[in-house]
Amino acid sequence: MNRSFYLRLTTILVVMLAGWMVLWPSFGKIAPAWVKAKIPYRMNLGLDIRGGARLSYEVQIGAAIAARRDRVIENIREQLATDYGFHSGTGRLTEEASQRLAGKVQMRRNEGDNREFSVIFRNAADNSRLTNEMLTSRDMRVVSRQGDRVVAALKQDEVERIERESVEEAVRRIEQRIDALAVRETSITARGETIVIEIPGSDQRYFDEIREIIRKTARLEFRMCADSATVLERFRGTGELAGRIPAGITLQSESVGVGQGPEGNRIEGTALYFRAQGPQGRRDLERFVTSIRSEIPDTYDLLIGEDDRRRNQRTEVPADQKMWRTFTVEHVSHVTGDQIQDARVEQRQDTNQPYTALTFKTDGARAFAQITTDNVGRRFAIVLDDFVKSAPYINEPIRGGTASITMGSGDVAAQRREANDLSVVLRAGALPAPLAEGAMDFIGPTLGQDIIKKSITAAAIAIGLVMLFMAVWYGPAGWVANGAVLLNIMLQLAAIAFLGATITLPGLAGLALTVGMAVDSNVLINERIKEEQRTGKSLRASVDAGYQHAFTAIFDGHVTSFISGVVLMQYGTGPIKGFAVMLLIGIVANLFTGVFCTRVVFDWLVRGLKIKNLSFG
């Protein structure tokens, strides 16, 4: 035997060993604990086999479009502030610059169309400051321009791009969140603006935990509190809007720091905020804040958070005693979740309280250091999905590129779960748009067990009949082909486990189909060898010629099937894609086992053992 034979034999043995090692942990009863601990690969059964839950979510494209519009508004606001001389042109607008600009121009979002906004100048002559070029360079178009008002909207091609990329990004973020939870069996597919998630299993609590992780938008922002702003003054005492405050909601005042004096002392001021108690109070407060949004200047937002005076309690606060309050914050986000490098759960040494520790990317660390340097003595709101998690004071510049988010009131175990969930979604990143949860459908485990038994029985019968035919019809050569078929099946299952794919009913159909294709390859080879023997050639020469002449037909047939599989996987969804994945894996396995492996066996028989006669049926 030459060196080439031993190289090919070694290749086969290595592939067989690797395939078995990947599959071994999936056989729970015969796999030792160290195998399961060291090898992470598993065969995952799909929802149609195991039973489980099917979740559906609608991507709120409108919110993503509105967010893009709002970024343009802020960009134009900075440009106009620079043109008026209120801003240097670098960095974020200061609160003072924003207030001066508000005296010259107002920007209003069109609540009826999330693509549009209006720019209203105090002096109609300033209309020309907002040029068409300023808008078109930001993917906007001019809807109308009359007197002191300019109405602009996002271009249609930009809207379509946002719609397309929002769904794609949402799928990617959900996959990352689920991967972080080690839920490998989950299937995620997009159908238009609907994302369908299939989770095998039967544990309702497990499903609820995953739902909670998925639904979080996880849009993290760091915003300066505008405690010196007087936007709520009209709701105070005999103010013109005091009568709009509903029962159960009170207007409170608090002494807060609004800056730092020249000697390093904190400058105190008085801030107003709305307050309510209990779950119903929170809902009433949210509705009230929404109803008065038009009364709040565009440069500020009124956000809700838990009253932090109870934050240091270690015991759970009863739901009806929890206090909720508003925070007046600047509309501009100085640092966002996109600038976070890592998020992890840590614990304070003195109180054992868990919290989420953040590490910023380079640009985030730079921005965080700058904003904390410029605003010592003020409060910095940490906002997650428009909810204020905490609003700590900036006592000194923070230049280490790190920050922390403390959890709400509750016991340590509950805070740890909340911190862990928050870390998962922050590491995966924010969703590009909120998700509206649709229906949750359950497939019972009894139905799953019934399906898996019938499916495995059907696949086993099909494969068994094919192997029986090969053994009877081709004799010893048929047994060689059967060995290749068994190796083929093992390699296909190993590939599925290695890739983290899911075995579904269509996948099992694809497995049975590729086994038939593998047998076809051996039929072509065996028949060709028989034809060569009829011409009087020796067994060794017949084997060489049989493989040489049959390979072209085998390869052409597999290439055309491979092209079909690629098209099915590219454009198919759900079951069709599962079938296509198994088909593609099977085609590659067929060429390896049906041609490469069987040739090594025949070379060993005719060259190593020097067999002169071998029956081919």
Radius of gyration: 33 Å
The CATH topology annotation of the largest domain reads as: Multidrug efflux transporter AcrB transmembrane fold
Q: How many extended strands? A: 21
Describe the main β-sheet briefly: 8 strands, mixed
> What's the name of the CATH homologous superfamily of the largest domain?
Multidrug efflux transporter AcrB transmembrane domain
The residue-averaged pLDDT reads 84
Total helical segments: 16
Uncertain runs: none
Classify the beta-strand content into a percent band. Answer: 15-25%
Principal-axis shape equals elongated
Give the structural class: alpha+beta
CATH architecture assignment name of the largest domain: Up-down Bundle
Lateral strand order in the biggest sheet? 10-11-13-12-18-17-9-14
Total domain modules: 3
Percent range of helical residues: 40-55%
CATH class of the largest domain: Mainly Alpha
Q: Span between N and C termini?
A: 27 Å
